[in-house]
Every structure is written in structure tokens, then in C-alpha cells.
């Protein structure tokens, strides 16, 4: 059986800020941008790689209650709702680029005892992005 990861979902509450971060700052390509009823689902991904991230409006699933919607909104505001893991062959250079552009750096690149160097930033919606570089 051959299984691969096609994509992942991250919430966004400001499509233009999401585009500025993922497209303009990280250099991802926009693969799809779908609007419906005043909302946008934006699919982005690194050039030359088949995996995608769908940046979606939060809490719009029909089965979500008002209380769940409130909790999701609060968790996004605190930066505790969603996360994703990236890797880079130049972690320090990437973090300098992100910091110079004003990204919210949560953890500067750090050597970990388990053989990785990693750091963390938040995207404009508060999603935690951990970025690692293997030693």
C-alpha cells in the first residue's frame, strides 16, 4: 500500500494576511483560491513539492456549535488551536528572514538533544509553525 500526504488544513481569519505570509514571505505558490459567501479557502504549497496546505475560514463546518466556535476563536487568538511542522536546510537564515519581516518568533533556532535544530513562529492567524533542520 502506497500512502502519501496530499495536504493539510490550517485556519486563517484574514485571507490577505495569510497570502502575505505564506506566498510573499515563505515563497509558497498559490494553487487554488476559492471564495464562497464572503469567505476564502486558499491552497498553498512549496514550489516543486506535491503537498499543499489549505488555509480555511475557521469554524465554518456545519456541525460546529456556537460554543465550539467561541472556543476555536479563543484558541486561535491565543495561538493554541493549530500547528504544522516544516523543515529547512538553512534554519538560521530562514529565521533571520522571518524576523526581519516582522514575523512573531516564538522560539529562536535551538539545538535539541534529540539531534535536531528547531525554532517556532506564528502565522498571522496564530497558528504555531515549528521549523526544523536535521543536524
From TrEMBL:
The VOC domain, residue ranges: 4-134
Pfam families found in the cross-reference section: Glyoxalase
InterPro entries associated with the record: Glyas_Bleomycin-R_OHBP_Dase, Glyas_Fos-R_dOase_dom, VOC_core
CDD domains: VOC_like
Protein name: Glyoxalase
Species per Swiss-Prot/TrEMBL record: Amycolatopsis regifaucium
Amino acid at each position: 500500500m502506497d500512502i502519501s500526504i496530499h495536504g493539510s488544513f490550517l485556519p486563517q481569519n484574514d485571507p490577505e494576511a495569510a497570502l502575505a505570509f505564506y506566498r510573499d514571505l515563505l515563497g509558497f505558490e498559490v494553487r487554488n483560491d476559492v471564495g464562497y459567501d464572503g469567505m476564502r479557502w486558499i491552497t498553498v504549497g512549496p514550489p516543486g513539492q506535491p503537498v499543499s496546505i489549505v488555509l480555511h475560514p475557521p469554524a465554518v463546518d456545519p456541525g460546529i456549535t456556537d460554543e465550539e466556535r467561541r472556543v476555536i476563536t479563543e484558541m486561535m487568538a491565543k495561538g493554541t488551536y493549530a500547528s504544522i511542522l516544516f523543515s529547512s536546510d538553512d534554519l538560521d537564515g530562514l529565521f533571520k528572514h522571518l524576523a526581519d519581516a516582522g514575523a512573531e518568533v516564538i522560539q529562536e533556532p535551538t539545538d535539541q538533544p534529540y539531534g535536531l535544530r528547531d525554532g517556532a513562529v506564528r502565522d498571522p492567524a496564530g497558528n504555531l509553525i515549528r521549523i526544523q533542520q536535521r543536524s
